[in-house]
Amino acid sequence: MRSHRCGELTESQLDQEVDLCGWTHRRRDHGGVIFIDLRDREGLVQVVFDPDYADAFKLAESVRSEYVLKVHGKVRSRPAGTENPNLGTGKVEVLATQLEILNKAETPPFPLESEVEVSEETRLRYRYIDLRRPAMQQKLRMRRDITRSLRGFMDANGFWEIETPFLTKATPEGARDYLVPSRTHPNHFFALPQSPQLYKQLLMVSGLDRYYQVVRCFRDEDLRADRQPEFTQLDIETSFMDQDAITDLMEEMIRALFKEVLDAELPNPFPRMTYAEAMRDYGSDKPDLRVPFKLVDVADLLTTCEFKVFAGAAKDPEGRVAALRLPKGAELSRKELDDLAAFVAIYGAKGLAYIKVTDRATGIEGLQSPIVKFLPPEAVLAILDRVGAETGDVVFFGADKAKIVSEALGALRIKLGHERGFAEGEWKPLWVVDFPMFEWDDKDGRWFAMHHPFTAPKCGVEELKADPGKALSKGYDMVLNGTEIGGGSVRIHRQDMQDVVFKLLGIEDEEAQQKFGFLLTALKYGAPPHGGIAFGLDRLVMLMSGANSIREVMAFPKTQSAWCPMIDAPAPVTDMQLRELGIKLRKPPEAKGEAN
Amino acid sequence: MRSHRCGELTESQLDQEVDLCGWTHRRRDHGGVIFIDLRDREGLVQVVFDPDYADAFKLAESVRSEYVLKVHGKVRSRPAGTENPNLGTGKVEVLATQLEILNKAETPPFPLESEVEVSEETRLRYRYIDLRRPAMQQKLRMRRDITRSLRGFMDANGFWEIETPFLTKATPEGARDYLVPSRTHPNHFFALPQSPQLYKQLLMVSGLDRYYQVVRCFRDEDLRADRQPEFTQLDIETSFMDQDAITDLMEEMIRALFKEVLDAELPNPFPRMTYAEAMRDYGSDKPDLRVPFKLVDVADLLTTCEFKVFAGAAKDPEGRVAALRLPKGAELSRKELDDLAAFVAIYGAKGLAYIKVTDRATGIEGLQSPIVKFLPPEAVLAILDRVGAETGDVVFFGADKAKIVSEALGALRIKLGHERGFAEGEWKPLWVVDFPMFEWDDKDGRWFAMHHPFTAPKCGVEELKADPGKALSKGYDMVLNGTEIGGGSVRIHRQDMQDVVFKLLGIEDEEAQQKFGFLLTALKYGAPPHGGIAFGLDRLVMLMSGANSIREVMAFPKTQSAWCPMIDAPAPVTDMQLRELGIKLRKPPEAKGEAN
């Protein structure tokens, strides 16, 4: 139906007869001539209707926004002075000799040209209109480019794309599963996978050596923050590679991706940071290295001071006292400082002590602070030296249980770093490694796996049993600009170790057998050393495309309540359907008391 | 951990030190030396343990089948006369100097070397063992190759891979949906997609021009024949291409695929056959063109004969009398003929009349048949002429309603053609086109869509309304060797036409609005002419790899009752989970009467 796409025309088609199809982006009547900007996926081109071609001209008069047109005409140079340098096709236009209206269009529910004042619900309801915006199409194009680049790397490195089931059983990630009632096995349910974790490990036991899949995963979580009920992973597993070999290969893939899609150079190698270092310096296991300032421990300078908040935390083996220097922060107003104190309170901090350095040259005299008077002057000066404070800076303090201090100052660091322009325009990837195997949960009084229960420890069975809290894992997270974009581990490949880990996690044998028995059995039959990683594709595309939300890089996302306004899903179903599945609805909420 | 894969070693690595990892495929002790065939995804290599390297030799003595090993050694030529020409690595062996046992293995539940006498349930329960068989890995490798070839073609032709949701609403295919209860919207359910049909049409309305996706689809059907609850489609949609342009491009893709993966040449172009021709000549809308014989209409020769079964059907406007000549079929025994009569009875045929041609030269005398005596000799001879019967052939007859005759003789044609070796070793693709828009269902007294309700007719609105039964659609099926591997259509892109089709199908406005309202709305806002196709990837891989079942080309298939013996899914869930989802189980079957 067409010889070219609209956005592809350049001077190299001059004087050619072309057929174009596309949407009416804009129509202008000017000097007895009609101009239509015709739009397709590749861009816009100006089409001119002249009364000399009477049929086409007459029809063009009836054309409205978003009408779908087929145009036959000749490419010519735009008259001097009317070129549009902002348009790929801006040096040419098409003089139309024939026009066909392929379809009419009602006025769209919102204009395509700007995103202003359109609610997200409206955009999602008319997603097929929203997706006509060139900016949206560019994001989907970049998503396609990214996926293709990643696949290409995987293919070139001997990874086979292998599909795993969606109708499966509860997986170990521990979030809530989406369930699918089985009709043929009444009272039984499939779970949609939170990841193909167990299947990919079984593929390694099968000797398939290297596997990958670009695969949908599902979590029925409350959609705070930027989550979606279904999301896409690049899921990878390999046999016979140790942790360094895996992380080396994976960062090579990401470097190649950024080079290919964004022409950006990432560091080689990526920095590696232990979990302990990350928490110490950045108060986070996903540090944004673009922000140039760090948390600095100062407890050793404050154990003997009279200020109880500091001294108490300094002496508590589980406490932490840390300082965070914000360059040029002395200009912060009282109101701003109060707001920051309220911000850290979200993370459990009971206040936000600070010292403004109005004049570093005059020692204690040059400081402005509600706390300096409680601290020994030599300690204050030693702290300023240690954090490298200069005139015009502010230094914040956290003193509490280590977890609270790290989280609060870590979050403050990110907030200030981003708000004050320290986090723009650079790519700062790193690996975080040496995670603890387990985290102790005081409330439940038991260990939890920090990655998942299949992650291998760096130590042997006996050492692990002797002091589980000390054990580090062979887990690794790839972090980019403060976002975790990939996480993985070397897995346990011996049954005895897997048994021990399940026991430490309080997964009793029967439960382990019922949930993961097939994996334990599989480990008996010759499992190779193996490990892998999963990258969050949506998040990666979001970062690379500069989008504000993963919803912007998915064709048909859902709202925060997991609802699709466009197709209106989820929806009621018939009683017949429920009957076939052997389930029924609990009574509606108002009659809740009667439900059994 | 390794320098090469086992199966990759050739004489070009002679005298190199190599590190290999793999599974113990076979161990033999012979002449004071231990031979281990070490296996990985790429193949086997012979490793030799000599007592000269005492540590490795001693350890090798403890090695059993399927132990996972790491071997260091030197590649050398096999001694003259011990080369194995059946093995890629058969000219070399590795003299091991170091051995590490990476993991032990219990004796596998079934031997890997042959498929004999292992039940499919056992194979599925220990799928990770089953997948170690080289034959299984070859099928997954070919699946990978096929997918990659198809993606490559799509990418090269401007199709964008775009992901569509899995948590969606009932789609129009009409099979039973898998449902997913929503927790955040009580009493509402998502449906898993039977296809991304509506989403891909909306992507065209979005102006995304060309889309594809290798995508999982779900149908909760009774798994007769070779079906799976989840299966994979190559799903495609394009704008601004008419039927011929689409089918031309799609067959080009399939030709490129067969060339690339199998080095096979498919015809160019594929033959095109109308639905009417296919039913007439092959009694099937997916004819296997490898079988060289056809159904031949003979009603015109039999309208006046005394044999009521023939004459009745010949005179019935909805009847059909057809003959099928089986070359060299005169040797069929009475028992075999009875079995064939029982076979066609499955399709509703009341019997299977036949004429054996024992001597074509002697006219009626040379025939052997229970029916010839009821037929005018000149009609019999005319039939034999028309079907081209020769001495030694048998000619079968069907006389009944056209549907029964076509289906019965069509199935008989396939059965005999396959059993008697007429259908081997060739690739015979074709397009079947010009399907009727609608099929009349006597039982329900209404029209059904032969493809789906979004398929465009070849005629205009008025003509369609005037005689729906005559209307042909712009649907097309790609058929290969008797299997439909792809099906698609040009879609309706105007709202008025879509309204009319919904009305003819008895989908009233309110229902249409509720089910497909978003599509009807979308068609108002400037939908381009568009169409597409979906290929059944599992089936295509099955055909190309010569597998007997789609279960053989899926890594983790389910049984006929939609059960996975390996992970034991579906499984019971907790009452807490059901409560959160706002559903409960109906009473167990034995208390059925009490359920409300």
UniProtKB/TrEMBL annotation, chains A, B:
Binding site for ATP: 219-221, 228, 484, 536-539
PROSITE patterns in UniProt: AA_TRNA_LIGASE_II
EC class (word): ligase
Alphabetical UniProt keywords: Aminoacyl-tRNA synthetase, ATP-binding, Cytoplasm, Ligase, Nucleotide-binding, Protein biosynthesis
Domain Aminoacyl-transfer RNA synthetases class-II family profile: 140-557
Record-linked CDD domains: AspRS_core (cd00777), EcAspRS_like_N (cd04317)
Catalytic activity field: tRNA(Asx) + L-aspartate + ATP = L-aspartyl-tRNA(Asx) + AMP + diphosphate
Pfam families attached to this UniProt entry: GAD, tRNA-synt_2, tRNA_anti-codon
Entry EC no(s): 6.1.1.23
A Gene Ontology cellular-component term: cytoplasm
PANTHER family, per database record: ASPARTATE--TRNA LIGASE, MITOCHONDRIAL, ASPARTYL/LYSYL-TRNA SYNTHETASE
Family the UniProt entry places it in: Belongs to the class-II aminoacyl-tRNA synthetase family. Type 1 subfamily.
HAMAP family, per database record: Asp_tRNA_synth_type1
Purpose: Aspartyl-tRNA synthetase with relaxed tRNA specificity since it is able to aspartylate not only its cognate tRNA(Asp) but also tRNA(Asn). Reaction proceeds in two steps: L-aspartate is first activated by ATP to form Asp-AMP and then transferred to the acceptor end of tRNA(Asp/Asn).
Protein name: Aspartate--tRNA(Asp/Asn) ligase
Organism of this sequence: Methylomagnum ishizawai
Organismal lineage: Bacteria, Pseudomonadati, Pseudomonadota, Gammaproteobacteria, Methylococcales
Gene field: aspS
